[in-house]
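Posting this for the archive.
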Amino acid sequence: MALKISNTLSGRKEEFKTLKPGEVTMYVCGVTVYASSHIGHAMSALTFDVIRRYLEYKGNAVRHVVNFTDIDDKIIKRAQDENVEWKSITERYIQEYLDWMDALNVKRATVYPRATEEVDGIVAAIQTLIEKGNAYHASNGDVYFRALSQPNYGALKHQSPDELNSGARIEVEEAKENALDFALWKSAKPGEPSWPSPWGPGRPGWHIECSAMALRHLGPQIDLHGGGADLIFPHHENEIAQSENLTGERPFVRYWAHNGLLQAKLVDPETGKSSVEKMSKSLGNTLSVGKLLEMGDPDMLRMFVLGSHYRNPLTYTDESFEVALTSLKRLKSVFAPHETWGDPDSTVGKAEATAALEQAVQTAKAGFETAMDDDFNTPAAIARLYELVRETFKGRDSGASGAALQKARESLAELGGVLGLRMKELPITNGSQDVEPFIKLLVDLRKELKTAKQYQLADRVREGLKGLGVKLEDRPDGTTWIFEK
Protein backbone atom coordinates (compact mmCIF):
# COMPACT_ATOMS: atom_id res chain seq x y z
CA MET A 1 0.00 0.00 0.00
CA ALA A 2 1.37 3.43 -0.93
CA LEU A 3 1.56 6.17 1.68
CA LYS A 4 -1.34 8.61 1.47
CA ILE A 5 -1.53 12.04 3.13
CA SER A 6 -4.48 14.32 3.69
CA ASN A 7 -3.53 17.44 1.76
CA THR A 8 -5.12 20.57 3.23
CA LEU A 9 -4.84 22.34 -0.13
CA SER A 10 -6.82 19.75 -2.11
CA GLY A 11 -9.00 18.66 0.80
CA ARG A 12 -8.45 14.97 0.08
CA LYS A 13 -6.04 12.11 0.66
CA GLU A 14 -3.34 11.87 -1.97
CA GLU A 15 -0.57 9.40 -2.68
CA PHE A 16 2.69 10.84 -1.37
CA LYS A 17 5.18 11.34 -4.20
CA THR A 18 8.28 13.44 -3.63
CA LEU A 19 10.07 15.73 -6.05
CA LYS A 20 13.12 13.45 -5.84
CA PRO A 21 12.59 9.73 -5.19
CA GLY A 22 13.87 8.71 -1.77
CA GLU A 23 14.27 12.31 -0.58
CA VAL A 24 11.79 14.41 1.40
CA THR A 25 12.01 18.15 2.00
CA MET A 26 9.94 19.06 5.05
CA TYR A 27 9.29 22.46 6.62
CA VAL A 28 7.46 22.84 9.93
CA CYS A 29 6.62 26.19 11.51
CA GLY A 30 8.30 26.53 14.87
CA VAL A 31 7.64 28.70 17.92
CA THR A 32 7.87 32.40 18.66
CA VAL A 33 10.38 32.50 21.49
CA TYR A 34 9.03 35.06 23.95
CA ALA A 35 7.90 32.60 26.69
CA SER A 36 8.14 28.96 27.69
CA SER A 37 6.60 26.51 25.25
CA HIS A 38 3.44 24.71 26.36
CA ILE A 39 2.23 21.20 25.62
CA GLY A 40 0.25 22.46 22.61
CA HIS A 41 3.55 23.42 20.97
CA ALA A 42 4.96 20.05 21.98
CA MET A 43 1.95 18.28 20.47
CA SER A 44 2.75 19.77 17.06
CA ALA A 45 6.44 18.92 17.40
CA LEU A 46 5.59 15.33 18.36
CA THR A 47 3.17 14.99 15.44
CA PHE A 48 5.72 15.94 12.83
CA ASP A 49 8.44 13.97 14.61
CA VAL A 50 6.32 10.84 14.10
CA ILE A 51 5.68 11.76 10.47
CA ARG A 52 9.39 12.27 9.91
CA ARG A 53 10.28 9.01 11.67
CA TYR A 54 7.85 7.06 9.52
CA LEU A 55 9.13 8.65 6.32
CA GLU A 56 12.63 7.59 7.34
CA TYR A 57 11.40 4.11 8.26
CA LYS A 58 10.10 3.89 4.68
CA GLY A 59 13.63 4.50 3.42
CA ASN A 60 13.57 8.24 2.75
CA ALA A 61 16.26 10.76 3.57
CA VAL A 62 14.40 13.67 5.23
CA ARG A 63 15.73 17.23 5.27
CA HIS A 64 13.72 18.77 8.09
CA VAL A 65 13.61 22.52 8.73
CA VAL A 66 12.02 24.08 11.83
CA ASN A 67 12.23 27.85 12.23
CA PHE A 68 12.37 30.12 15.26
CA THR A 69 10.62 33.48 15.11
CA ASP A 70 13.08 35.42 17.25
CA ILE A 71 11.84 38.98 16.71
CA ASP A 72 8.29 40.28 17.01
CA ASP A 73 6.11 42.56 19.14
CA LYS A 74 5.77 40.06 22.00
CA ILE A 75 9.52 39.51 22.25
CA ILE A 76 10.13 43.26 22.28
CA LYS A 77 7.50 43.78 25.00
CA ARG A 78 8.89 40.92 27.11
CA ALA A 79 12.37 42.44 26.92
CA GLN A 80 11.01 45.86 27.90
CA ASP A 81 9.05 44.38 30.81
CA GLU A 82 12.16 42.60 32.11
CA ASN A 83 14.43 45.52 31.24
CA VAL A 84 16.84 43.24 29.35
CA GLU A 85 18.19 43.01 25.81
CA TRP A 86 15.76 41.24 23.46
CA LYS A 87 18.40 38.68 22.49
CA SER A 88 18.60 37.41 26.06
CA ILE A 89 14.89 36.58 25.87
CA THR A 90 15.18 34.66 22.61
CA GLU A 91 18.35 32.78 23.59
CA ARG A 92 16.75 31.70 26.86
CA TYR A 93 13.63 30.26 25.27
CA ILE A 94 15.35 28.72 22.24
CA GLN A 95 17.68 26.72 24.47
CA GLU A 96 14.81 25.78 26.78
CA TYR A 97 12.75 24.59 23.82
CA LEU A 98 15.58 22.46 22.43
CA ASP A 99 16.29 20.91 25.84
CA TRP A 100 12.63 20.08 26.34
CA MET A 101 12.27 18.56 22.88
CA ASP A 102 15.32 16.39 23.58
CA ALA A 103 13.62 15.20 26.78
CA LEU A 104 10.49 14.35 24.75
CA ASN A 105 12.62 12.34 22.30
CA VAL A 106 11.86 14.67 19.39
CA LYS A 107 14.59 14.26 16.78
CA ARG A 108 16.58 17.40 16.14
CA ALA A 109 15.71 19.11 12.86
CA THR A 110 18.31 19.26 10.13
CA VAL A 111 18.47 23.02 10.62
CA TYR A 112 16.80 25.60 12.89
CA PRO A 113 16.95 28.94 11.05
CA ARG A 114 16.17 32.14 12.93
CA ALA A 115 14.39 35.14 11.45
CA THR A 116 17.11 37.56 12.58
CA GLU A 117 19.76 35.52 10.76
CA GLU A 118 17.81 35.66 7.48
CA VAL A 119 17.27 39.43 7.17
CA ASP A 120 19.45 39.90 4.07
CA GLY A 121 17.51 37.21 2.21
CA ILE A 122 14.21 38.61 3.43
CA VAL A 123 15.07 42.13 2.24
CA ALA A 124 16.10 40.75 -1.17
CA ALA A 125 12.83 38.79 -1.42
CA ILE A 126 10.74 41.85 -0.57
CA GLN A 127 12.60 43.93 -3.16
CA THR A 128 11.85 41.28 -5.80
CA LEU A 129 8.15 41.29 -4.90
CA ILE A 130 8.04 45.09 -5.19
CA GLU A 131 9.72 44.96 -8.60
CA LYS A 132 7.19 42.37 -9.76
CA GLY A 133 4.28 44.51 -8.63
CA ASN A 134 3.20 42.12 -5.87
CA ALA A 135 4.18 44.47 -3.04
CA TYR A 136 4.30 48.21 -2.33
CA HIS A 137 5.95 50.66 0.06
CA ALA A 138 3.09 52.33 1.93
CA SER A 139 2.80 55.84 3.34
CA ASN A 140 3.31 54.61 6.92
CA GLY A 141 6.76 53.22 6.05
CA ASP A 142 5.67 49.57 5.99
CA VAL A 143 5.84 47.32 2.93
CA TYR A 144 2.71 45.30 2.12
CA PHE A 145 1.99 42.34 -0.15
CA ARG A 146 -0.94 42.76 -2.53
CA ALA A 147 -2.98 39.71 -1.56
CA LEU A 148 -5.17 39.88 -4.66
CA SER A 149 -2.13 39.73 -6.92
CA GLN A 150 -1.98 36.05 -6.01
CA PRO A 151 -4.25 33.93 -8.23
CA ASN A 152 -6.70 31.90 -6.12
CA TYR A 153 -5.79 33.67 -2.91
CA GLY A 154 -7.68 31.80 -0.19
CA ALA A 155 -7.34 28.36 -1.81
CA LEU A 156 -5.67 26.81 1.26
CA LYS A 157 -8.47 28.10 3.47
CA HIS A 158 -11.01 27.07 0.79
CA GLN A 159 -12.59 30.53 0.85
CA SER A 160 -12.83 33.38 -1.63
CA PRO A 161 -11.23 36.78 -0.91
CA ASP A 162 -14.69 38.20 -0.18
CA GLU A 163 -15.33 35.47 2.40
CA LEU A 164 -11.90 36.02 3.95
CA ASN A 165 -12.52 39.76 4.14
CA SER A 166 -15.80 39.37 5.96
CA GLY A 167 -14.99 36.44 8.26
CA ALA A 168 -11.35 36.67 9.27
CA ARG A 169 -9.44 38.70 11.82
CA ILE A 170 -7.65 41.07 9.46
CA GLU A 171 -5.49 43.96 10.53
CA VAL A 172 -6.96 47.08 8.88
CA GLU A 173 -4.56 49.94 8.19
CA GLU A 174 -5.35 53.15 6.33
CA ALA A 175 -2.08 52.75 4.45
CA LYS A 176 -3.21 49.43 2.94
CA GLU A 177 -4.65 49.26 -0.55
CA ASN A 178 -6.82 46.33 0.53
CA ALA A 179 -7.73 44.96 3.96
CA LEU A 180 -6.32 41.54 2.97
CA ASP A 181 -2.86 42.96 2.22
CA PHE A 182 -0.27 41.93 4.80
CA ALA A 183 3.02 43.34 6.07
CA LEU A 184 6.32 42.18 4.62
CA TRP A 185 8.39 44.85 6.37
CA LYS A 186 7.51 46.87 9.47
CA SER A 187 9.11 50.28 9.92
CA ALA A 188 10.91 50.70 13.22
CA LYS A 189 9.37 52.51 16.17
CA PRO A 190 11.59 54.44 18.62
CA GLY A 191 13.58 52.12 20.87
CA GLU A 192 12.83 48.97 18.86
CA PRO A 193 15.53 46.71 17.37
CA SER A 194 15.82 47.29 13.63
CA TRP A 195 17.77 46.41 10.51
CA PRO A 196 18.60 48.61 7.49
CA SER A 197 16.57 48.30 4.29
CA PRO A 198 15.80 50.31 1.13
CA TRP A 199 12.57 51.41 2.87
CA GLY A 200 14.25 52.57 6.06
CA PRO A 201 15.12 50.77 9.30
CA GLY A 202 12.68 48.12 10.40
CA ARG A 203 12.15 44.39 10.79
CA PRO A 204 10.55 41.56 8.81
CA GLY A 205 6.86 40.75 8.94
CA TRP A 206 5.98 37.32 10.28
CA HIS A 207 4.89 35.64 7.04
CA ILE A 208 7.88 36.53 4.87
CA GLU A 209 10.25 34.93 7.37
CA CYS A 210 9.06 31.41 6.61
CA SER A 211 9.08 31.91 2.84
CA ALA A 212 12.67 33.16 2.91
CA MET A 213 13.82 30.34 5.19
CA ALA A 214 12.07 27.61 3.21
CA LEU A 215 13.43 28.91 -0.11
CA ARG A 216 16.96 29.19 1.24
CA HIS A 217 17.15 25.83 3.00
CA LEU A 218 14.86 23.66 0.85
CA GLY A 219 14.49 25.31 -2.55
CA PRO A 220 11.62 26.85 -4.58
CA GLN A 221 9.37 23.82 -4.12
CA ILE A 222 9.10 21.56 -1.10
CA ASP A 223 7.42 18.22 -0.51
CA LEU A 224 5.75 18.63 2.86
CA HIS A 225 4.86 21.67 4.95
CA GLY A 226 3.39 21.26 8.41
CA GLY A 227 2.03 23.24 11.32
CA GLY A 228 -0.99 23.70 13.51
CA ALA A 229 -4.45 24.16 12.00
CA ASP A 230 -4.49 27.72 13.33
CA LEU A 231 -1.73 28.60 10.84
CA ILE A 232 -3.75 27.76 7.72
CA PHE A 233 -4.95 31.34 7.49
CA PRO A 234 -3.42 33.81 7.28
CA HIS A 235 0.11 32.50 7.80
CA HIS A 236 0.31 29.58 5.39
CA GLU A 237 -1.99 31.21 2.86
CA ASN A 238 0.40 34.14 2.80
CA GLU A 239 3.44 31.90 2.54
CA ILE A 240 2.01 30.43 -0.65
CA ALA A 241 1.30 33.87 -2.12
CA GLN A 242 4.77 35.23 -1.35
CA SER A 243 6.74 32.16 -2.38
CA GLU A 244 4.95 31.40 -5.65
CA ASN A 245 5.23 35.01 -6.80
CA LEU A 246 8.87 35.16 -5.79
CA THR A 247 9.92 32.07 -7.74
CA GLY A 248 7.20 31.56 -10.35
CA GLU A 249 7.13 27.89 -9.27
CA ARG A 250 3.75 26.34 -8.51
CA PRO A 251 2.88 24.70 -6.25
CA PHE A 252 5.19 26.03 -3.56
CA VAL A 253 4.26 23.01 -1.40
CA ARG A 254 3.13 19.65 -2.75
CA TYR A 255 1.44 18.47 0.48
CA TRP A 256 0.14 20.62 3.33
CA ALA A 257 -0.36 18.77 6.64
CA HIS A 258 -1.99 20.44 9.66
CA ASN A 259 -2.39 19.01 13.12
CA GLY A 260 -5.52 19.63 15.16
CA LEU A 261 -5.21 22.00 18.09
CA LEU A 262 -4.85 21.07 21.73
CA GLN A 263 -7.81 22.17 23.79
CA ALA A 264 -8.10 22.51 27.53
CA LYS A 265 -11.19 21.33 29.39
CA LEU A 266 -11.85 23.80 32.19
CA VAL A 267 -14.30 23.35 35.06
CA ASP A 268 -15.81 26.32 36.86
CA PRO A 269 -15.23 25.60 40.58
CA GLU A 270 -18.42 27.45 41.56
CA THR A 271 -20.93 26.11 39.04
CA GLY A 272 -19.24 22.83 38.12
CA LYS A 273 -19.86 23.57 34.46
CA SER A 274 -17.13 22.62 32.02
CA SER A 275 -15.95 24.36 28.87
CA VAL A 276 -13.41 23.55 26.17
CA GLU A 277 -11.15 26.17 24.65
CA LYS A 278 -7.94 26.32 22.64
CA MET A 279 -4.81 26.10 24.77
CA SER A 280 -2.82 29.31 24.37
CA LYS A 281 -0.47 31.57 26.28
CA SER A 282 -2.77 34.55 25.85
CA LEU A 283 -5.69 32.73 27.53
CA GLY A 284 -3.53 31.62 30.44
CA ASN A 285 -4.74 28.00 30.26
CA THR A 286 -1.44 26.39 29.33
CA LEU A 287 0.64 23.63 30.87
CA SER A 288 4.31 24.20 30.17
CA VAL A 289 6.46 21.38 28.85
CA GLY A 290 8.69 21.85 31.90
CA LYS A 291 5.77 21.15 34.26
CA LEU A 292 4.87 18.08 32.23
CA LEU A 293 8.41 16.72 32.50
CA GLU A 294 8.19 17.06 36.29
CA MET A 295 5.11 14.81 36.29
CA GLY A 296 7.01 11.66 35.36
CA ASP A 297 7.67 9.71 32.17
CA PRO A 298 8.15 12.09 29.21
CA ASP A 299 6.57 9.48 26.92
CA MET A 300 3.20 10.18 28.58
CA LEU A 301 2.61 13.17 26.34
CA ARG A 302 3.60 11.25 23.22
CA MET A 303 1.25 8.43 24.17
CA PHE A 304 -1.54 10.96 24.73
CA VAL A 305 -0.93 12.48 21.28
CA LEU A 306 -0.63 9.11 19.51
CA GLY A 307 -4.03 8.07 20.83
CA SER A 308 -5.79 10.50 18.48
CA HIS A 309 -5.41 11.10 14.74
CA TYR A 310 -3.09 14.06 14.23
CA ARG A 311 -5.67 16.07 12.26
CA ASN A 312 -8.25 15.91 15.04
CA PRO A 313 -8.42 18.42 17.90
CA LEU A 314 -7.32 16.89 21.18
CA THR A 315 -8.76 17.82 24.57
CA TYR A 316 -6.61 17.76 27.68
CA THR A 317 -8.14 17.04 31.09
CA ASP A 318 -6.66 16.33 34.50
CA GLU A 319 -7.01 12.59 33.87
CA SER A 320 -5.39 12.62 30.41
CA PHE A 321 -1.88 11.72 31.46
CA GLU A 322 -2.99 9.14 34.00
CA VAL A 323 -4.76 7.29 31.19
CA ALA A 324 -1.75 7.74 28.90
CA LEU A 325 0.60 6.38 31.55
CA THR A 326 -1.56 3.30 32.07
CA SER A 327 -1.52 2.67 28.30
CA LEU A 328 2.23 3.21 28.23
CA LYS A 329 2.80 0.64 30.99
CA ARG A 330 0.71 -1.88 29.08
CA LEU A 331 2.64 -1.28 25.87
CA LYS A 332 6.06 -1.52 27.52
CA SER A 333 5.18 -4.44 29.79
CA VAL A 334 7.17 -6.98 27.78
CA PHE A 335 10.35 -5.12 28.75
CA ALA A 336 9.63 -5.07 32.50
CA PRO A 337 12.65 -6.42 34.43
CA HIS A 338 10.55 -8.87 36.43
CA GLU A 339 9.39 -10.70 33.28
CA THR A 340 11.38 -13.74 32.13
CA TRP A 341 11.80 -14.76 28.49
CA GLY A 342 14.25 -17.63 28.36
CA ASP A 343 17.39 -17.90 26.23
CA PRO A 344 17.07 -15.40 23.34
CA ASP A 345 19.28 -17.59 21.15
CA SER A 346 17.42 -20.83 21.77
CA THR A 347 15.25 -22.24 18.99
CA VAL A 348 13.92 -24.94 21.30
CA GLY A 349 10.21 -24.61 21.95
CA LYS A 350 6.81 -25.89 21.01
CA ALA A 351 6.55 -25.76 17.23
CA GLU A 352 2.93 -24.64 17.11
CA ALA A 353 3.42 -21.82 19.64
CA THR A 354 6.60 -20.66 17.92
CA ALA A 355 4.98 -20.59 14.47
CA ALA A 356 1.96 -18.72 15.83
CA LEU A 357 4.16 -16.05 17.42
CA GLU A 358 6.26 -15.64 14.27
CA GLN A 359 3.05 -15.15 12.26
CA ALA A 360 1.81 -12.63 14.85
CA VAL A 361 4.97 -10.58 14.37
CA GLN A 362 4.47 -10.46 10.60
CA THR A 363 0.77 -9.63 11.00
CA ALA A 364 1.51 -6.82 13.46
CA LYS A 365 4.17 -5.27 11.24
CA ALA A 366 1.93 -5.40 8.16
CA GLY A 367 -0.99 -3.93 10.10
CA PHE A 368 1.21 -1.21 11.57
CA GLU A 369 2.43 -0.16 8.12
CA THR A 370 -1.10 -0.25 6.67
CA ALA A 371 -2.27 2.07 9.44
CA MET A 372 0.62 4.50 9.05
CA ASP A 373 0.31 4.49 5.26
CA ASP A 374 -3.26 5.71 5.74
CA ASP A 375 -2.43 9.32 6.61
CA PHE A 376 -0.31 8.36 9.65
CA ASN A 377 -3.17 6.72 11.56
CA THR A 378 -1.37 6.34 14.88
CA PRO A 379 -4.37 5.06 16.91
CA ALA A 380 -4.67 2.10 14.53
CA ALA A 381 -0.89 1.60 14.56
CA ILE A 382 -0.86 1.55 18.38
CA ALA A 383 -3.64 -1.03 18.33
CA ARG A 384 -1.43 -3.36 16.30
CA LEU A 385 1.30 -2.98 18.94
CA TYR A 386 -1.13 -3.86 21.73
CA GLU A 387 -2.06 -7.00 19.80
CA LEU A 388 1.60 -7.97 19.49
CA VAL A 389 2.14 -7.43 23.22
CA ARG A 390 -0.75 -9.80 23.92
CA GLU A 391 0.53 -12.39 21.42
CA THR A 392 4.04 -12.16 22.87
CA PHE A 393 2.84 -13.03 26.37
CA LYS A 394 0.59 -15.73 24.91
CA GLY A 395 3.56 -17.16 23.02
CA ARG A 396 5.66 -17.31 26.15
CA ASP A 397 2.92 -19.01 28.16
CA SER A 398 2.34 -21.49 25.32
CA GLY A 399 6.00 -22.48 25.08
CA ALA A 400 7.32 -20.54 22.06
CA SER A 401 11.09 -20.60 21.61
CA GLY A 402 13.32 -18.01 23.24
CA ALA A 403 14.46 -16.84 19.80
CA ALA A 404 10.88 -16.24 18.65
CA LEU A 405 10.11 -14.35 21.85
CA GLN A 406 13.21 -12.22 21.38
CA LYS A 407 12.21 -11.45 17.79
CA ALA A 408 8.74 -10.39 18.93
CA ARG A 409 10.13 -8.09 21.60
CA GLU A 410 12.66 -6.55 19.22
CA SER A 411 9.89 -5.96 16.68
CA LEU A 412 7.90 -4.15 19.34
CA ALA A 413 10.92 -2.01 20.16
CA GLU A 414 11.45 -1.20 16.48
CA LEU A 415 7.84 -0.31 15.68
CA GLY A 416 7.42 1.61 18.91
CA GLY A 417 10.59 3.48 18.03
CA VAL A 418 9.04 4.53 14.71
CA LEU A 419 6.45 6.34 16.85
CA GLY A 420 9.22 7.79 19.00
CA LEU A 421 8.41 5.63 22.04
CA ARG A 422 11.38 4.49 24.11
CA MET A 423 10.02 0.99 24.53
CA LYS A 424 12.83 -0.41 26.68
CA GLU A 425 12.69 2.54 29.08
CA LEU A 426 9.85 1.73 31.41
CA PRO A 427 7.31 4.32 32.57
CA ILE A 428 8.23 6.14 35.75
CA THR A 429 5.51 5.95 38.39
CA ASN A 430 6.16 7.40 41.82
CA GLY A 431 9.82 6.50 41.66
CA SER A 432 9.05 2.85 40.85
CA GLN A 433 12.30 2.32 38.96
CA ASP A 434 14.29 3.30 42.06
CA VAL A 435 12.78 0.51 44.17
CA GLU A 436 12.83 -2.30 41.60
CA PRO A 437 16.23 -3.71 42.69
CA PHE A 438 14.95 -3.99 46.28
CA ILE A 439 11.75 -5.72 45.21
CA LYS A 440 13.77 -8.19 43.16
CA LEU A 441 15.97 -8.84 46.19
CA LEU A 442 12.90 -9.63 48.34
CA VAL A 443 11.46 -11.88 45.62
CA ASP A 444 14.74 -13.81 45.49
CA LEU A 445 14.80 -14.03 49.29
CA ARG A 446 11.27 -15.42 49.31
CA LYS A 447 12.32 -18.05 46.77
CA GLU A 448 15.20 -19.12 49.03
CA LEU A 449 12.88 -19.28 52.05
CA LYS A 450 10.45 -21.51 50.16
CA THR A 451 13.33 -23.77 49.07
CA ALA A 452 14.36 -24.03 52.73
CA LYS A 453 10.70 -24.80 53.58
CA GLN A 454 10.44 -21.61 55.63
CA TYR A 455 6.92 -21.06 54.31
CA GLN A 456 5.72 -18.81 57.13
CA LEU A 457 8.55 -16.36 56.53
CA ALA A 458 8.04 -16.57 52.77
CA ASP A 459 4.37 -15.68 53.25
CA ARG A 460 5.35 -12.71 55.42
CA VAL A 461 7.51 -11.40 52.57
CA ARG A 462 4.60 -11.83 50.15
CA GLU A 463 2.12 -10.07 52.43
CA GLY A 464 4.58 -7.29 53.17
CA LEU A 465 5.06 -6.61 49.46
CA LYS A 466 1.30 -6.72 48.94
CA GLY A 467 0.90 -4.06 51.59
CA LEU A 468 3.32 -1.89 49.62
CA GLY A 469 1.29 -2.30 46.43
CA VAL A 470 3.38 -5.09 44.86
CA LYS A 471 1.52 -8.18 43.64
CA LEU A 472 3.42 -11.45 43.16
CA GLU A 473 2.45 -14.23 40.78
CA ASP A 474 4.05 -17.67 41.01
CA ARG A 475 4.36 -19.45 37.68
CA PRO A 476 6.21 -22.56 36.48
CA ASP A 477 8.98 -20.42 34.99
CA GLY A 478 9.41 -18.28 38.11
CA THR A 479 7.81 -15.46 40.10
CA THR A 480 6.75 -12.19 38.48
CA TRP A 481 5.57 -9.00 40.13
CA ILE A 482 3.68 -5.85 39.21
CA PHE A 483 2.75 -2.61 40.91
CA GLU A 484 -0.90 -2.35 41.82
CA LYS A 485 -2.80 0.88 42.42
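The mean pLDDT is 91. The longest strand covers residues 222-228.
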